Amino acid sequence: RLANAATPLWRLLYQEQLQVKYESQRKILQTLTSRLEELGIDAQKPDGLCCPLQPVVPSPIINGYRNKSTFSVNRGPDGNPKTVGLYVGTGRARNIVCVRADRMENIPSKHKQVAQCYEEFIRCSPLDPCILFHEGGHWRELVVRTTSCGHTMAIITFHPQELSQEALVTQKALLKEFFTCGPGTVCALTSLYFQESTMTRCSHEQSPFQLLHGEPHIFEEMLGLKFRISPDAFFQVNTGGAEVLYQAVGELSQASGDTVLLDICCGTGEQQLCTIGLSLAHQVSKIIGIEVVEKAIEDARWNAAFNGISNCEFHSGKAEAVLPQLLSSWEDTRPLVAVVNPSRAGLHYRVVRAIRNCRSIRRLLYISCKPEGEAMRNFLELCCPPDPGKKLAGEPFAPTLAIPFDMFPHTVHCELVLLFTR
């Protein structure tokens, strides 16, 4: 049941999975085409779409490709409340159970091993799991991150409830002992982090990640660069797939030695590392990265310096505040290309407006993990006729090419790269 819920395409041959994804992306483009037609834009090309749609680019790795997995703690099918795994069922039907991830094709064996060890630890602990915050309990989710360099980071979330500082120190010591001297040593963790959290999700600022053992960072290599990864850093979950995606973005941007590339990371809550910008820095004159989380800027600057990249400048703050300010006074005559990779919430309207109203941007690459959602609104705002009421004065963009990338084999999801030009 778990495999069917989380990875519904797992039974299909990989070529069949790609075909399913191609058809779903085609439907999304058909929707965009008809929405553009409603705006009075003659968008339809001979094949009925607003721009050519290329076949789905396959993932270089099909099984065990995830470099990050999040495991919950809840009741298992046998009723044991200390089961570590993934949810099946819905809250509405009240049939949620937590099922071990043993048979999940997309999760690597190392992640499953750490989850199994964490389950063993909490089952021996006298403390209860925290299933509903108001009902008490302590042990919460586990995040496991691995890299192609062989590093493993585990982050354990714990609800302190009314525990004293002394009791918390004891629990942290027991956890550390289990993973460094006890049965958990088989996991060979590079980093073990602990976070006391009274909310569903906490940032480092709200509740610091406490390093119990090992190195503060793990490292990933991609496209000849080395990236430092903090506990809450955003990194594409499929490293091999990300390499293919970023190489294609480099080609599609047509960025040359005199190009300035805008790498706009928008509001994921997790800190992004400006990985796209850094990976393309060698082929452009300058990279300008915008990121909301200050710590991500720290990491991005460190990564740039470590890799000997000196043509980057990073701005910290919300893109909707930083970008309009940056572009309103833009007088640089060099070609300006923008790459946006927003969360599912899409781009803030002020970001779209700033891009649209900046004459220097003739080429925009929009990378979307959910193009049928809020991103669709952005596409229409970028392409609609000038609208003084909405302060969209700039010349409209037009969709020029669409390329889907399969970053998530066995699931129905993929990343769509849409090239807009004007």
Automatic annotation (TrEMBL):
<keyword id="KW-0808">Transferase</keyword>
<dbReference type="InterPro" id="IPR010280">
    <property type="entry name" value="U5_MeTrfase_fam"/>
</dbReference>
<dbReference type="GO" id="GO:0003723">
    <property type="term" value="F:RNA binding"/>
</dbReference>
<comment type="similarity">
    <text>Belongs to the class I-like SAM-binding methyltransferase superfamily. RNA M5U methyltransferase family.</text>
</comment>
<feature type="binding site">
    <location>
        <position position="236"/>
    </location>
    <ligand>
        <name>S-adenosyl-L-methionine</name>
    </ligand>
</feature>
<dbReference type="InterPro" id="IPR025714">
    <property type="entry name" value="Methyltranfer_dom"/>
</dbReference>
<dbReference type="GO" id="GO:0032259">
    <property type="term" value="P:methylation"/>
</dbReference>
<dbReference type="Pfam" id="PF13847">
    <property type="entry name" value="Methyltransf_31"/>
</dbReference>
<feature type="binding site">
    <location>
        <position position="341"/>
    </location>
    <ligand>
        <name>S-adenosyl-L-methionine</name>
    </ligand>
</feature>
<protein>
    <recommendedName>
        <fullName>tRNA (uracil(54)-C(5))-methyltransferase</fullName>
        <ecNumber>2.1.1.35</ecNumber>
    </recommendedName>
</protein>
<feature type="binding site">
    <location>
        <position position="291"/>
    </location>
    <ligand>
        <name>S-adenosyl-L-methionine</name>
    </ligand>
</feature>
<dbReference type="InterPro" id="IPR045850">
    <property type="entry name" value="TRM2_met"/>
</dbReference>
<dbReference type="InterPro" id="IPR029063">
    <property type="entry name" value="SAM-dependent_MTases_sf"/>
</dbReference>
<dbReference type="InterPro" id="IPR025823">
    <property type="entry name" value="TRM2B_chor"/>
</dbReference>
<feature type="domain" description="Methyltransferase">
    <location>
        <begin position="258"/>
        <end position="326"/>
    </location>
</feature>
<feature type="active site" description="Nucleophile">
    <location>
        <position position="369"/>
    </location>
</feature>
<dbReference type="GO" id="GO:0006396">
    <property type="term" value="P:RNA processing"/>
</dbReference>
<keyword id="KW-0949">S-adenosyl-L-methionine</keyword>
<keyword id="KW-0489">Methyltransferase</keyword>
<dbReference type="GO" id="GO:0030697">
    <property type="term" value="F:tRNA (uracil(54)-C5)-methyltransferase activity, S-adenosyl methionine-dependent"/>
</dbReference>
